[in-house]
Amino acid sequence: MGYDSLDDAAVYHLKDGRILIESVDFFTPIVDDPFLFGSIAAVNALSDIYAMGGVPLFALNITGFPSETLPLSVLADILKGAEAVADEVGIPVLGGHSIKDKEPKFGWVVTGEAGPGGVIRNSTAQPGDILVLTKPLGSGILTTAIKRGLADEILIEGVVELMRTLNRAAAKAMVKAGVSACTDITGYGLLGHLAEMCEASNVSAVLDFTQIPFMEGVFELAAKGVVPGGSKKNLAFVSPKVAFEADLAPYQQLMLADAQTSGGLLIAVSPDSAPQLLDELEKNCRYSPAVLGKLYRSAEKKIYIK
């Protein structure tokens, strides 16, 4: 399984029947604290493994660092932040690789293994499935506000907590309930990742904007134009595939395309299995699950927002 399926990670079948899941993710700092940056980057890198219903086995560090302009103690703190996540998950970090770079970058290469139920893909959603999201949206907008000095301590603490929250409990819940498909919401935003799921599964989605959860402060910041450039590019790319309700404001459209860091899982689940999934998520996850809408047979547009 590779690029052609638009899945979240690479999958490799071993001769003994086991299935490996492999992914890599790294980025530049989105918070000032090196320890928090390292932990957020690690949690984000694990997300692709969890999105496929997998269990992480080990990780490798990958980093670029300006050692001539920043003290190595900063890099040490980044690595300590990632190590704390590894300890929480219960996996080893088996080395890694670093280069000199003008701007700090950090992330993980993660190797995982499929659970007993096999790999959960993003290309197997079915007409009639319910769409469930496990974390609220808006981390791109809020981290942009942090960079511009427009976020207070409450907003900063809220988005940092969200980005540091593992998708492990949500993955366990969906494996237990049995779901049709899943993807995690990261750099392409809700619309981008949902469009990939719909295209790969040959379905269309209808979402209710009023049911989509956003973090505190996101509406106000987006209305003032505090939106990252990546989110604007996301919307421009995905717009031909989306039909927006006429009264949906441009900034609200951008909120739906907001580029996320360490976002939640977007799960397609049958109506029969949805109650168990929602119950498991409610009991075991930090954030309450949200039912965003439903999938239908493929139509003219991939996504309809009402």
Attribute tags:
306 residues; Phosphoribosyl-aminoimidazole Synthetase, Chain A, domain 2; 60s Ribosomal Protein L30, Chain: A; alpha+beta; 7-stranded mixed β-sheet; 5-stranded mixed β-sheet; 2 domains; globular; 12 strands; single chain
Question: Could you explain the architecture of this structure?
Answer:
The protein is α+β, with helices and mostly antiparallel strands. It has two domains: 3-114, 60s Ribosomal Protein L30, Chain: A (2-Layer Sandwich); 130-305, PurM-like C-terminal domain (Phosphoribosyl-aminoimidazole Synthetase, Chain A, domain 2, Alpha-Beta Complex). Helices cover 37% and strands 25% of the residues. A seven-stranded mixed β-sheet has the order 7-10-6-11-8-12-9, sandwiched between helices. Helix 1 (34-51) runs parallel beside helix 2, helix 3 crosses helix 4 (153-163) and helix 8 packs across helix 9 (250-256). The longest helix is centred in the first third of the chain and has 18 residues, at 34-51. It is globular. It starts with 9 loop residues before the first strand and ends with a strand. The model has no long low-confidence stretch (mean pLDDT 95).
